[in-house]
UniProtKB/TrEMBL annotation, chains A, B:
SUPFAM superfamilies: Actin-like ATPase domain (SSF53067), Winged helix' DNA-binding domain (SSF46785). Pfam families: HTH_24 (PF13412), ROK (PF00480). GO terms for molecular function: kinase activity. Belongs to the ROK (NagC/XylR) family. Gene3D superfamilies: 3.30.420.40, Winged helix-like DNA-binding domain superfamily/Winged helix DNA-binding domain (1.10.10.10). Keywords: Kinase, Transferase. This is Sugar kinase of the NBD/HSP70 family, may contain an N-terminal HTH domain.
């Protein structure tokens, strides 16, 4: 409840650095204009960011008669953040510089049978060893890890991790011990990390009320207000995939019936294609690609599947629009990437039948078209946010 | 997007004054403890609140050896705020002192045929004339008005006002001209005013993530984060009543089908009672009282109605819990008051079948049991918040 000038300072710092990452090299004056902050505030924040090793001066530009202005950029040669995307069949680890550019990556395949915390941690550690060997003595500033399921950020995994059935696992402590790294480890689930990724490097930058709809094997949403991830009381906000659109609907893996995920999650989409007479074969991703190709070719079962899924998605998205009234809705997740060309236009066409006029008009709709792994990027951005929190213990110029 | 120290200052000011209204007389030291702010910050805010005429020193208390501490209270003898509850059949106007105590009230009945903005404004003006005559030369600091439908706060009514069919009415300007009052007029709908009322004078005080479910003729929610009303991009956040729980469900007056309001709004409740063999006669409020009495007497149709409505309400509330993960859910509105003894326990019993474990455990559930008109109180509190915004133009001690 308590609001402090530190919160404001950190929020402004995020805004400045996000613009800097997007538009570097740039000047304090332009940053002030873009963030709507005073030049004095920006200058104080930049001084602290330089002191923290996150930003560097990279040159000067003519200011049209006055003193040349310093040009600023993220310190790409400085420390790195690690982002880890843990899914049920793989671990992808990426190292990012302070411009959020990938400088290295490693991937581990996991067998479906490898479901214990110890096995998962083993794969993360193996990927980390590869990357550390190549990074040499470059400092690691923090590690962000995205885990499936509901994640207790201070502790480990709680609630249902879909196929793993972990309960009360002190994952963060176990991982920190195994990595033997003296840097903070941040945990969250993909709904949260993708949303943080959108705030730092996607369409969500500068958006006041952001909703990210994440369509994958599981389905959920990320909400962010004022440029900051909204976690809810116990970090379980965003479980939009487990909101009901029809109590008489199909069984969901969460135990309830008629959840959005039971209609638009990848298994539900492929089940519907099967029921309509399609041929969903191979792995989930192979089958989804086959569905997209069949739709492209005009196969009736595929067309009907896309229309049915779009209708469920529109009903579910309208519920979120009517309740939250966001400025921007971003569609994300691997199902959006695989099936978006078919699904997104059908979805948009159906939204007006479900959403009220005011929130429908207010919300821009975007589909994430980046090739990047937003889960790993967002996990690294979580670590960056944690690192920036040190602004509140170093420097003093912008503390007023 | 921009966050300023003014926002923080206003938010802290709200927190201090809310505690002061609840616990007066009290000291700066106790306020600091209750709000988790420093004594210096509280002292600066109190100095400005005294300068603004909102707070007064009312005495001293022994501090156990040191200097006696000043006791503070809201300036109950100072200016008043007007709160107006405009419904489809009445206008209730209440005048509040700065302790949010009602000092006067007036009520106008409206005929169902009186649906023009001019007629509604006429009734507000008539109620205002009565109260102004009695207030004498006591200053009116602001006027808050709650209107049904979707309200454009800066301008007037937009979207659907249920039975009135107003579009693009510059209500605020028309009302300000008619009242001939040189004070600000604040407009909003009952979802928003009740929620602000809960923040100032209800269970929502001090709660970080608040959801208020408002059950009446219409149905909706109010959300508040960090002690401040969440309006969404275009002030239409909270249209929870128009989220779908079954696309094949009954027609809703918004045009869609299967909205929560089409199950748990007063007309829907009474229709279900009829269908189950009950006798819903008289006005809506009379029929709802008859339903409550029939339930109390164990009438099978009434029992079945309450169970069915509780099931729909649980499905809809679980959707909000899963998406928003609030700390507190308050049930409010006239249907809650009339039918709550029957409905609320049945609702709570069914919630676990729909909500995920984490958000269910996190959310306390409360039923508003106050006798006060929370719509009018909240409208007056909106005017008070507007008045406190002047802190940012007077005084300077707490501006840092």
């Amino acid at each position: 409840m308590k609001s402090t000038s530190r919160d404001i300072r950190l929020r402004n710092c995020f805004a400045v650095l996000r613009h800097l990452i997007a538009d570097a090299p740039t000047s304090r004056q332009i940053l002030a204009r873009e963030t709507d902050l005073s030049v004095a505030t920006v200058s104080n924040l930049v001084t602290d960011l330089i002191e923290l090793g996150v930003v560097v001066e990279v040159g000067r530009e003519d200011s049209g008669g006055g003193r040349p202005r310093a040009l600023l950029a993220p310190h790409a040669g400085g420390g790195v953040m690690i982002g880890v995307d843990v899914a049920e069949t793989y671990v992808q680890l990426e190292a990012y510089d302070l411009a959020l550019t990938v400088v290295d990556r490693a991937e581990e395949r996991m067998e479906a049978s490898e479901t214990s915390p110890d096995q998962v941690i083993g794969h993360i550690a193996a990927a980390m060893d590869q990357v550390r060997g190549r990074l040499g003595d470059r400092a690691i500033l923090g590690v962000g890890v995205s885990l499936p399921g509901q994640v207790d950020v201070t502790w480990g995994v709680s609630g249902f991790a879909p196929n793993w059935d972990w309960h009360d696992v002190p994952f963060r402590r176990l991982l920190t011990e195994r990595l033997r790294l003296d840097v903070p480890v941040y945990l969250d689930n993909p709904l949260k990390t993708i949303t943080v990724g959108e705030l730092w490097f996607g369409d969500g930058r500068g958006v006041d009320r952001l909703a990210v709809l994440i369509l994958g094997t599981g389905v959920g949403a990320g909400l962010a207000f004022g440029g900051q991830l909204y976690r809810g009381a116990t970090n379980s906000a965003g479980e939009w995939g487990h909101t009901t659109i029809d109590p008489a609907g199909p069984q969901c893996r969460c135990g309830a019936t008629g959840c959005i995920e039971a209609y638009v999650g990848a298994p539900a989409i492929l089940r519907q294609w099967d029921e309509f007479g399609g041929r969903a074969a191979g792995s989930q991703t192979e089958a989804m690609a086959a569905l997209a190709a069949a739709w492209e070719a005009g196969e009736p079962a595929a067309v009907r599947t896309v229309e049915t899924v779009a209708e469920s998605l529109a009903a579910g998205a309208a519920n979120l629009l009517n309740l939250v009234n966001p400025d921007l809705v971003v569609l994300d997740g691997w199902v959006t990437a695989a099936l978006g060309d078919a699904l997104v236009p059908e979805f948009e066409r159906r939204l007006a039948a479900h959403a009220l006029e005011a929130p429908l008009k207010a919300a821009r709709l975007k589909r994430n078209t980046q090739e990047r792994n937003m889960v790993a990027l967002g996990a690294a951005a979580l670590a960056l946010e944690g690192h920036l929190n040190r602004l509140n213990t170093v420097g003093s110029r912008s503390r007023r």
